[in-house]
Every structure is written in structure tokens, then in C-alpha cells.
Design goal:
The chain is an alpha+beta fold and 400 residues long. The chain has a domain of 160 residues. The protein is built from 12 helices and 12 strands. Helix 2 packs antiparallel against helix 12.
């Protein structure tokens, strides 16, 4: 029995292969989009892992410090450190901004870390080059994804910092590489106003009797002094003592310190379920659109190839070939086209992922799910061509 699928593929292999390549590039985009979502989730989990924290103490009734703004006094950590079950506690600030190196900027998350030693919450867990920050000012540790090198001079707000260490895979939930600087410098960069704003505020304070009431000397001086200092951080990172349960320690801090405390599971739910939820929906819509477009392409190609061999199908019917056999041949061709497309798409996604602007994480289970989806799409797309083949009249084999 002649296999129409193999015969047609060999007869017009160039058209078939190039069609498979085109379909494969579309499948490659689909796999890459799925990898982008997986990469976003992985970035969120890596951020939590690298923080070295079991609990996040933030401003009351906020989703800080990553999903919302959070501001608490920088002396809160002392009270938190004294709570039962707490092994370590350290202040931290986070600020996403453009870090300038020479004449170009790099989008980064600047993290202010407290004085301590490796293992302190908030510190980069390991370095690939250089050393950790040892001075209280003007030193930085940067992720290698920023492109910075040891000895580079970075500009953050008005100050310059020397890169003394490089780390790897330290990113924000958005995939921005992180830059670590001393806490006091980060507080100044995030909270303090520039000189012009301070001068304008001083003028407003002097002209406003509410802030400078007569008969209360020193009021204006106190306000101006408060503008020159910054007693705030974004969060306190807590490490729980061995044998203690994070949920119980968090409940004690909530009760006695009147602050919001998140465990690792709760923080992951915030990052994955809320912070990247909209992006996940957008990616899901793109995946649906790409699946529909892929199905339309396969259906059109298979239908066109089927119409091109109507006479051959009529001859098969004339010699007694069953409709199921003819349908199987068309189905084989559709699945073969899908498999070629999947192989091309998988190769394109694998080799293109490192050059994608976002972190792309290609998981084996996603590839397997993509393969099943491609086969299902090809099977469904071949239905139109199969119906057209079944309706062919055997008389067309001898017709003019």
C-alpha cells in the first residue's frame, strides 16, 4: 500500500521542511514565553533564597518590601532581635533605579545591607570574585549581570562607589541585577532629599507659622535637623533560631511589635500570586493566541496538501481503500509536520534563551507538555483535511 504521507513528503520535501521550520519558529516563541514565566517565578524564589531570611518584618498593613513600599524605623531591629526564637535580625533597604557607570546606565535593584559578616540577612551569600563590603561607605558588590567589573566606579545618586566584589544570580523579582551598598549610603540614596528640595522645604517651614509657631524656640531647627537625617529602612530580615517555628515567631512579633510579618511561604505567595500575576495572565493569553495561530497554520498546510492530491485519493478509493486508512495517512502527515516544528522550536528556544533580555527557564515538563500540545493541535487541525478527503468521489480518478 502506498503511503500518501511519505510519498507526498518525499515528492515535495523542500516545501514540507520549510513549512516545518516556519512552524518550529512559532513553537519556539511559545516555548520561550512559557520559559519567561518560569523564569519570573524562579527570579522571585531566588530573591527570597538569597536574602537569607526566614521572616520579613515590614510596615503594618503593607505587602512590602518587594510588592509595596514599606518604611519602618531603623531601630526596630533591636526589639525584633530580642524576641523569643530570633537568631539574627538585620535592616535592609531596596531601591530599583538606574546605576550609572561612565556614560551609560544599568537598571538595577540597589540593596542597602547592615554592618555584619557573611551570613548576615540581606548579604549576598557568595561571591565569584573580589570581597564583601568591609567599609561603612562607598563600596559596592554587584551581580555580574550588570556588566560591572572589579574596580569600576559607580554613581548612585550623588555618591560614587567602588566595586569590590562580584556575585552571581542575585536578581530582583523583575529580573534586575542587584547592587549591594552599605545601609547608611542606601538610606541616603532612597530617603534623603536633594539640596534644592531641602532649601525649598526650609523656606516653606520658615514661612509657615504652623511649623514655626512663635514662642517655641528651636522648632525650626528641629525640623531642619530631621531633614538631614534618615531613620527609616524598608524591612527587617529575620533568621529563626534552630528548633523554633517561623509561624510562632512571626505571631509573637506581630503581637508585641505591632508590625506586619511574613513567612517564606507568605512572601512567595505575594511575589508569585500578586506581583507577577498580571504578567502571568499576559503570557497565558499570548500562549493561547500562539496555539490558535499554530493550529490555523497546520490546518491550512495540511488542507492545501490534501487538495493537491485529490486524484490520488480518488484512485485509492476506486481500488477499495477504506476511509480510515486515508484518514490515517493524512493524520500521519499532520503529526510529522508538528514533530518537525517541535524539534526546530525546541532547538531555537534552547539556543536563543541565553540571549533573551529576561531570564528564560526551560523545564523538561514544559517541553513534554508542549510536545503533547503540538500533537493534539496537529490531530485537531487535520480534521478539516480528513473531511475533505472522505468526501472525494472515486469517479474523479477517471474524470477529465
Amino acid at each position: 500500500m502506498i503511503s500518501l504521507a511519505a510519498r507526498d513528503i518525499l515528492h515535495a520535501w523542500g516545501k514540507f521542511v520549510f513549512t516545518g521550520i516556519g512552524l518550529g519558529l512559532l513553537i519556539g516563541v511559545t516555548l520561550t514565553m512559557a520559559g519567561v514565566y518560569r523564569g519570573m517565578v524562579d527570579d522571585a524564589r531566588v530573591l527570597l533564597d538569597n536574602s537569607g531570611a526566614d521572616l520579613w518584618v515590614v510596615q503594618k498593613d503593607t505587602l512590602g518590601p518587594y510588592a509595596e513600599s514599606s518604611s519602618i524605623y531603623d531601630d526596630v531591629w533591636r526589639g525584633v532581635r530580642g524576641m523569643p526564637g530570633v537568631a539574627r535580625a538585620a535592616n535592609v533597604t531596596y531601591l530599583t533605579m538606574q546605576v550609572r557607570l561612565g556614560d551609560h546606565d544599568v537598571r538595577s535593584m540597589v540593596s542597602g545591607i547592615a554592618t555584619g559578616e557573611p551570613g548576615t540577612p540581606g548579604w549576598p551569600p557568595q561571591l565569584v570574585a573580589g570581597r564583601q563590603i568591609t567599609r561603612g561607605h562607598y563600596e559596592a558588590v554587584a551581580d555580574i549581570a550588570t556588566g560591572f567589573k572589579l574596580g569600576d566606579r559607580l554613581q548612585i545618586r550623588r555618591n560614587h562607589y567602588t566595586v569590590v566584589g562580584l556575585t552571581r544570580r542575585m536578581v530582583s523579582s523583575n529580573g534586575d541585577p542587584m547592587v549591594f551598598i552599605p545601609l547608611k549610603d542606601a538610606q541616603e540614596a532612597q530617603f534623603l532629599k536633594d539640596n534644592d528640595a531641602i532649601l525649598q522645604q526650609r523656606r516653606r517651614t520658615a514661612e509657615n507659622p504652623v511649623y514655626n509657631p512663635p514662642g517655641i524656640p528651636g522648632m525650626l531647627d528641629g525640623v531642619i535637623a530631621a531633614q538631614s537625617t534618615n531613620p527609616f529602612v524598608n524591612a527587617v530580615l529575620v533568621q529563626v533560631a534552630p528548633g523554633s517555628r517561623p509561624d510562632e515567631v512571626a505571631e509573637g512579633i506581630r503581637r508585641w511589635k505591632r508590625l506586619t510579618v511574613y513567612t517564606r511561604g507568605q512572601m512567595e505567595d505575594i511575589l508569585v500570586g500578586k506581583l507577577i500575576a498580571t504578567s502571568a495572565k499576559q503570557i497565558g493569553m499570548f500562549l493561547v493566541i500562539l496555539a490558535v495561530v499554530s493550529a490555523a497554520i497546520v490546518a491550512f498546510i495540511i488542507y492545501t496538501l490534501t487538495l493537491g492530491k485529490i486524484r490520488e485519493i480518488a484512485v485509492l478509493k476506486l481500488i477499495g481503500t477504506r476511509n480510515t486508512t486515508i484518514a490515517g495517512m493524512i493524520l500521519q502527515q499532520a503529526v510529522a509536520l508538528g514533530l518537525i516544528g517541535f524539534v526546530v522550536g525546541k532547538i531555537a528556544a534552547t539556543f536563543g534563551a541565553p540571549y533573551f533580555p529576561k531570564h528564560v527557564l526551560l523545564l523538561p515538563r514544559d517541553s513534554f507538555a508542549g510536545l503533547l500540545a503540538v500533537v493534539v493541535i496537529c490531530v485537531l487541525s487535520s480534521i478539516v483535511a480528513i473531511r475533505a478527503a472522505i468526501k472525494v468521489d472515486p469517479a474523479e480518478a477517471v474524470g477529465g
